[in-house]
Write a structure and sequence with these properties.
The complex is a heterodimer of chains A (235) and B (897). With 235 residues, chain A is α/β, with parallel strands linked by helices. Chain A is built from eight helices and twelve strands. In chain A, the strands form three sheets. Chain A has a five-stranded parallel β-sheet with strand order 2-1-3-4-5, sandwiched between helices. Chain B is built from 26 helices and 25 strands. The N and C termini of chain B lie far apart (106 Å). The chains are: A alpha/beta (235), B alpha/beta (897).
Chain lengths: 235, 897
């Protein structure tokens, strides 16, 4: 157990879950701050300045989405929200409110660690690490300066929209992006009410970059939430 | 007469008592003339009540500058009057809304008979009082005897001053207390001479003649008697309540026969006095005679007025139809156990009775046990011949007469022309044809004229000596008489047929309107549909615009439908709609409440609670007649029943759902406990072994850990299924339908099942140009996962599983085909039942397929299973798709690189 590992704030009201997370995160070099509710969480957040937040959306004292929004009001610390299956709308709301990623209960420790890694990496990039000029994931290679995409070394021709979507997903590799976030970024804020735009163009994009579009390997759908470009580090 | 009151009386009284206990009190300070000190008495009593801590507010009290009265007002809270502009002046009026908002315990309101300034909500102050009482505010008010509706004409006879401001007797009966304010007439005259009496407008105009001692004595007697009647009634109630034997010669029922003639109002009042004296129910009847022209506009309005008067005096009103007035009356009287018939004294000449029979005679002769009271002032016969206008072409009366003259002239010419060619033996027949033409075309009066002219022309031109009215042969006189008589009969018969026809037509139209509505409503379901049908029918019947309003939460109303579509009522009339809804009574144009509005509103009701309002802006310039209002109300009732039916059906559906959910919960608990315990037992066993047993071999440890993970996953799937099932079955799942490419949903499902489908060959056959489909992607993914999981479980490894999709007939057709053993014949429906498991060797709670079917149904679609050619099963999902598709998604707008 290291004394200088990344500090994670865990806001979770269920003791067994806290116990499991404490054990698994500590053994992977993270230091833990534990809060049982949003108020405690907010206190620890302002006094200890952790590096990451893992936030359960079903807190007893206040709405987790609201809490996310409040945190985003003063810091861009990565937030990973945890919620039960069947609450996809809550997840989307939390992500649109500024959360970085989500986990669906029950989840395995590997999944959590992967999310934490991705979140830390993106936070590091936001702090000034220059974005890569070239992105590579499996057979897919994107050259951002030349706006060129190759799959298995063969160049594929993407429409401007497809390229923008692919670039956006790649820059956020490992992170989930909601339909709304993609629409806002690619089409503009006026189009956020048309999720089928994304879906149709995404289907086209997959046909061009996925080996088997019926079982996409890289651009995966997060049902009811959005899309995620599978990270190299992810299983 | 039994010792105890009969149960119905008891019930009625219990209800009455309950009502009295709950409702606000009305106290009337009752006097026989202005100046007796009613206002004074009212204020004095109010001050006493204030002393006892009652919250008293003065709504409207006229002091007329009297110092004593003004002194009494001091210290009482006075509600500010509303200023109402009227013809350039500003008049002060009781602020009803302010009074309702202030909600005092007791409100003082002078002059119950006061007529409100036009533009106020109600025409009369007594209507304000009723609304205040309904709102639970006690009211004290003052009233003079000459303003009592049923005494109005008697007072007019005594004083020769007709008072137009009247208060219905029902209000006096509604009053919980009537306090007689009485002083001797001499004292009143003294006060008058001292100038202490303020005379109302009417009385002032009548001047001193009103305040003659004889008048005052008579008025005082009237007031005393009216109060005594009231005391009698109280005594009666007391006797009933305390089981005192009822001295009332029970069973009296009075029938008064009225018509459109002005004297009928006296008949109504006389009947009311008699009914009050006997404490008997009474009925005012008008008889429409089939075959007689309907009465004219003016007469109809008078008749409606009489019927309304009777209603306001507490009568039941009926319109009877019959061939003879007397028969209709007597039939009704016998059927309804009428004991007395009140009828007007005839005023027409006796000769008419000889010709047409006397109504009075007929009634008296046929009355049997029933007493007949003949009262001066009215003739009950609905006088079609005198008042009615024949229903003929749109010509005026003089035009018709000229036309009749023309027809006879033409007949004469034709007859002359024919006579020139060949002598015609029966010229008179030709004239009769002419008379008949007149009867058919120009109505009764013109045809009678024609009959007369025909006789004259026949005499003048064709009876020797020609071209004189002289008659050579006296036998012709008989011919003339017969000719004239035949002419009259023809005209009368033709006329009667026309009349019956048009009446039957009108009645048929009303019946048909109701029938059509109820037929259309029979198949209708849902508020919006019912509202639309009702609006359309009402508009068809009356023209103009009809809107149906339904109450919304928060005391507002919303227009559920309008006809013609998009039609609207004046936004200012929404208040009328709300009033009608709140009070459950008609309001607006043509009624007593808010008559200034352009809209007529009547509540839609099935039971006591109004369910909505029909608002009608008539296309015709006149306000609706009472019978038309009646038809609107009848339409409202039909709509009410339909709405009620919808609500009951909805309630039934809800409770059926609740029962089903309850049943599901209990069956779930019993069936699932086993499935829940098995993985739990495995986990507990493995975990305790790991904790307690030291020195386990590494492979055993990893085996146990693997068991824990697998069983936990199994538990998770089971719990998810249970939750899904409960949510879907409860009907509370909200579909999040979105336009999605189907391959995305299929792809997600396949990704989720990657490991479990490893042993099968999975192929997808999606139609190449499959358009976007409107589904809930999460639910359909769940459905696919369940179907594929099922295939993985029940089909041998190595076999093929295919997902095929296409659009057929506006439906999404999605099939999952396998090459397994297939579903046993006869079990095709059973597999969709909860907790059904094909074979017990396979684990699972038997919830997968029921969830799939519930998802399909939530999409208004179907899911079934059939045997596949060549072995295996085909699960077929069909989901109807909307006709319109979203626009093709555009390329993203490009910013400059």
């Amino acid at each position: 157990m290291t004394q200088d590992g990344p500090l994670v704030l865990l806001v979770e009201d269920e003791a067994p879950l806290r116990k499991f997370l404490r054990a698994s995160l500590s053994s992977h070099g993270y230091r833990l701050l534990e809060a049982q509710n949003a108020n405690e969480g907010m206190q620890l957040l302002t006094t200890h300045k952790p590096e990451l937040v893992v936030l359960d959306l079903g807190l007893p004292d206040r709405d987790g989405i609201d809490f996310t929004r409040e945190i985003r009001g003063f810091t861009d610390i990565p937030i990973i929200v945890v919620s039960a299956r069947g609450k996809e709308e809550d997840k989307v709301l939390a992500l649109d409110a500024g959360a970085d990623d989500y986990l669906t209960k029950p989840f395995g420790v590997q999944e959590l660690l992967a999310r934490l890694r991705v979140a830390r990496r993106h936070a590091g990039r936001a702090r000034g690490t220059p974005p890569a000029q070239v992105f590579e994931a499996g057979p897919i290679k994107i050259d951002f300066t030349r706006r060129e995409v190759t799959v298995d070394g063969r160049e594929v021709h993407l429409t401007p929209t497809e390229y923008k979507m692919l670039a956006l997903l790649a820059q956020n590799a490992g992170r989930v992006l909601t339909h709304r976030q993609i629409l806002k970024d690619v089409w503009g804020p006026a189009y956020v009410a048309h999720p089928h735009y994304v879906r149709v163009h995404m289907a086209e994009l997959r046909k061009k970059v996925e080996a088997d579009p019926a079982r996409p390997k890289w651009i995966v759908t997060e049902p009811g939430v959005g899309y995620r470009f599978r990270d190299r580090a992810q299983p | 007469m039994s010792e105890r009151p009969d149960p119905e009386t008891l019930l009625r009284r219990a209800r009455g008592e309950e009502e009295r206990a709950n409702r606000a009190k009305l106290r009337i300070f009752f006097g026989f003339a202005p100046g007796v000190g009613k206002t004074f008495a009212m204020l004095e009593s109010a001050r006493r009540l204030v002393g006892q801590g009652v919250d008293v507010v003065v709504g409207a009290v006229e002091t007329h500058g009297r110092k004593e009265t003004e002194a009494l007002l001091e210290g009482l809270e006075i509600l500010p009057r509303k200023k109402v502009p009227y013809r350039g002046r500003e008049l002060e009026e009781l602020d009803l809304d302010a009074a309702l908002a202030r909600r005092p315990e007791l409100l003082l309101l002078d002059e119950l008979a006061h007529t409100n300034v036009p533009g106020s909500r109600h025409k009369k102050r007594w209507q304000d009082v009723l609304e205040l009482l309904e709102a639970g505010i006690e009211v004290h008010t003052t009233l003079n005897v000459q303003h009592v509706e049923s005494l109005n004409d008697v007072v007019a006879q005594i004083t020769h001053v007709l008072v137009r401001e009247t208060v219905p007797d029902s209000l006096l009966e509604r009053a919980d207390e009537i306090e007689l304010v009485d002083i001797p007439p001499e004292e009143l005259l003294e006060r008058l001479s001292e100038g202490k009496v303020y005379l109302g407008d009417q009385a002032a105009r009548a001047g001193q003649s009103f305040f003659r001692r004889g008048n005052l004595l008579a008025l005082r007697e009237l007031a005393l008697r009216r109060t005594a009647e009231r005391v009698d009634a109280d005594v009666q109630t007391y006797r009933e309540e305390h089981g005192v034997t009822d001295p009332w010669p029970s069973g009296e029922r009075i029938l008064v026969c009225i018509g459109p003639s002005p004297g009928s109002s006296r008949l109504v009042r006389a009947a009311r006095r008699m009914a009050a004296g006997l404490r008997a129910p009474w009925v005012a009847a008008y008889v429409e005679v089939a075959g007689v022209a309907p009465i004219g506009q003016a007469a109809r309005q008078r008749l409606d007025g009489h019927l309304r008067l009777a209603e306001s005096l507490g009568a039941t009103t009926v319109r009877l139809t019959g061939v003879k007035v007397s028969d209709a009356l007597l039939v009704y009287a016998r059927k309804h156990n009428v004991t007395r018939i009140v009828i007007g004294k005839p005023t027409h000449p006796r000769i008419r009775d000889l010709v047409r029979g006397s109504l009075l005679d007929e009634v008296v002769r046929g009355s049997g046990d029933v007493d007949v009271h003949v009262i001066s002032g009215d003739e009950a016969r609905p006088d079609g011949a005198r008042e009615g206008k024949p229903v003929v072409g749109p010509v005026t009366e003089p035009q018709r007469y000229f036309s009749a003259i023309g027809v006879i002239a033409l007949t004469t010419l034709i007859a002359a022309a024919i006579a020139r060619v060949a002598p015609l033996p029966d010229v008179e027949m030709l004239y009769l044809v002419g008379v008949m033409v007149c009867a058919v075309s120009f109505g009764r009066h013109a045809s009678i004229l024609a009959a007369g002219l025909a006789v004259a022309a026949y005499d003048f031109f064709f009876v020797p000596p020609h071209h004189t009215f002289a008659v050579a042969d006296a036998r012709y006189i008989l011919t003339f008489a017969m000719m004239f008589a035949v002419g009259i009969v023809i005209s009368a018969l033709t006329h009667r047929i026309r009349r019956q026809e048009s009446e039957a037509l009108a009645r048929e139209e009303r019946t048909r309107a109701l029938y059509d509505l109820s037929r259309d409503l029979a198949g209708a379901y849902g508020d919006a549909r019912i509202a639309e049908i009702t609006a359309r029918h009402a508009s068809d019947s009356f023209g103009g615009t009809v809107a149906i309003y339904l109450p919304e939460d928060g005391g507002t109303v919303k227009a559920a439908a309008a006809w013609p579509v998009g039609g609207r009522i004046d936004p200012n009339d929404i208040g009328v709609v709300k009033w009608a809804l709140e009070h459950g009574r008609p309001a607006g144009r043509g009624t007593d409440t808010l008559p200034g509005a352009g809209t007529f509103c009547t509540p839609i009701r099935a039971g006591a609670e109004p369910l909505g309002v029909i608002a009608l802006v008539s296309g015709a310039p006149d306000a609706l007649r009472p019978d038309e209002q009646g038809l609107v109300e009848a339409l409202g009732r039909q709509a009410g029943f339909a709405l009620d039916r919808t609500r009951l059906a909805e309630q039934a559906r809800q409770s059926a759902l609740a029962a089903k959910a309850e049943e599901l919960r209990s069956s779930l608990l019993s069936s699932v406990s086993h499935d829940l315990r098995t993985p739990l037992a495995a986990i507990t066993g493995a975990a305790t072994t790991l904790r307690d047993e030291t020195g386990l071999a590494a492979d055993v440890r990893s085996d146990l850990l693997g068991t824990i993970c697998e069983e936990a996953e199994r538990l998770e799937r089971l719990v998810s299924n249970l939750l899904d099932m409960t949510r879907l079955e409860s009907g509370r799942v909200r579909l999040n339908e979105e336009w999605v490419p189907l391959e995305e949903v299929v792809g997600t499902a396949l990704s989720r099942l990657d490991s479990r489908l490893r042993d099968h060959v999975v192929t997808t056959e999606l139609e190449p140009d499959l358009p976007l489909v409107s589904i809930d992607p999460i639910l359909i993914e769940q459905l696919l996962v369940n179907l594929l999981e099922n295939a993985a479980k029940y089909t041998p490894p190595g076999t093929e599983v295919t997902i095929a999709a296409r659009m057929t007939d506006g439906e999404l057709a999605l099939d999952v085909l396998d090459r397994g053993p297939g579903v046993p014949a006869g079990q095709e429906e059973k597999v969709f039942e909860r907790f059904y498991r094909g074979t017990h060797t396979v684990s699972g709670a038997g919830l997968g397929l029921p969830i799939c079917r519930a998802i399909a149904r939530a999409h208004d679609g179907t899911l079934d299973v059939v045997a596949r050619d060549g072995g295996g099963a085909v699960f077929r999902l069909r989901i109807p798709q909307p006709e319109s598709r979203p626009s093709v998604p555009p390329e993203a707008p490009q910013e400059q690189p």
